[in-house]
């Protein structure tokens, strides 16, 4: 009975010791980081800039994509119906097109709606008021489900269509630039992420070198590599988390500085576009990813050092 009760108690004791060492390693790492404020600030600043560049480029691309319109809107095909076409036939044609398998959605914009939109956006109320009647035709705004080029060609054959407008070239060029920008962001993320990894690794290497005698004593006493490596892993994670938070702060400051002038520029073109910042989940992912990057950098350097210095049995 005593042996059975001693086993769980011993297991709990080992778990408590393991947890206590993790807490101690974390607190000691924070102490070492704060004990060298200028060196730590330099390391964190370099990492933050390296992280902010690709993340900022991703954010810029996301805002550019929003500014150009969502994907479905940029794929729209505008079918201008003949002016003499009756309103009932326009509505019936819209229903017929909605039933097609290669069309995702159809919006009928009546001449009255078009004239109201023109009054609102053009500022030419007086000139429009002098017109006799409504010269605008009904328009069908069609969102394709498949190949929009084939759909646009087929819509040109409609007897009710006066003009089919589809600027596929502009959208394809924009998509090409967005794809290039995304690829560039990934390349920058890989290169600058590697740079951040090396910065943390070099900082941890210097810290290991300053404690090599202490590490040697621990190795002689039989401490495991995990036990010795743990404080350095937490040190790298602290560098990464601090750098991620600073990178997020830099990007937020840039967003605040650019938001008002960009909104004013957009309003001059009749657009309500405004920069969109980071949502909390994305911001947390940035900071957590930076922490993982610092952890990995410290782990690689500490593991390499311990493999080189581990005493061997003779």
Automatic annotation (TrEMBL):
Domain FtsX extracellular residues, every copy: 76-148
Domain ABC3 transporter permease C-terminal: 187-300
Keywords in alphabetical order: Cell cycle, Cell division, Cell inner membrane, Cell membrane, Membrane, Transmembrane, Transmembrane helix
Subcellular location: Cell inner membrane
Sequence intervals crossing the membrane: 38-61, 184-204, 232-254, 281-306
InterPro entries: ABC3_permease_C, FtsX, FtsX_ECD, FtsX_proteobact-type
GO terms under cellular component: cell division site; plasma membrane
Membrane topology: Multi-pass membrane protein
GO biological process, one term: cell division
Pfam family, one: FtsX_ECD
Function: Part of the ABC transporter FtsEX involved in cellular division.
Entry similarity comment: Belongs to the ABC-4 integral membrane protein family. FtsX subfamily.
NCBIfam families, A to Z: FtsX_Gneg
PANTHER family cross-referenced by the UniProt entry: CELL DIVISION PROTEIN FTSX
SUBUNIT field: Forms a membrane-associated complex with FtsE.
Protein name: Cell division protein FtsX
Species: Lysobacter silvisoli
Lineage, top ranks: Bacteria, Pseudomonadati, Pseudomonadota, Gammaproteobacteria, Lysobacterales
């Amino acid at each position: 009975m005593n042996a059975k009760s001693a086993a769980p108690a011993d297991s709990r004791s080992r778990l408590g010791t393991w947890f206590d060492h993790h807490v101690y390693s974390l607190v000691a790492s924070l102490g070492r980081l704060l004990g060298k404020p200028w060196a730590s600030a330099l390391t964190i600043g370099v990492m933050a800039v390296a992280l902010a560049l690709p993340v900022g480029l991703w954010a810029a691309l996301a805002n550019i994509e929003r500014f150009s319109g969502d994907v479905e809107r940029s794929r729209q095909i505008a079918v201008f119906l003949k002016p003499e076409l009756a309103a009932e036939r326009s509505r019936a044609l819209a229903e017929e097109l909605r039933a097609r398998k290669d069309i995702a959605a159809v919006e009928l914009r009546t001449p009255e709606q078009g004239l109201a939109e023109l009054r609102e956006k053009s500022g030419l109320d007086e000139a429009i008021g002098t017109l006799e009647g409504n010269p605008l035709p009904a328009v069908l705004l069609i969102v394709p489900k498949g190949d929009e080029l084939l759909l646009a060609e087929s819509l040109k054959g409609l007897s009710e269509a006066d003009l089919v407008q589809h600027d596929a070239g502009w959208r394809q060029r924009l998509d090409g630039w967005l794809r290039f920008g995304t690829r560039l962001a990934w390349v920058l993320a890989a290169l600058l992420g590697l740079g951040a990894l090396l910065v943390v690794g070099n900082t941890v290497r210097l810290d290991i070198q300053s404690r090599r005698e202490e590490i040697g004593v621990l190795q002689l006493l039989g401490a495991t590599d995990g036990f010795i490596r743990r404080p350095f892993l937490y040190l790298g994670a602290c560098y990464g988390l601090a750098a991620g938070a600073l990178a997020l702060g830099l990007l937020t400051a840039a967003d605040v500085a650019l938001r008002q002038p960009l909104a004013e520029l957009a309003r001059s073109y009749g657009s309500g576009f405004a920069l969109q910042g980071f949502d909390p989940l994305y911001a947390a992912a940035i900071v957590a990813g930076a922490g993982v990057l610092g952890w990995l950098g410290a782990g690689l350097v500490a593991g390499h050092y311990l493999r080189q210095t581990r005493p061997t049995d003779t």
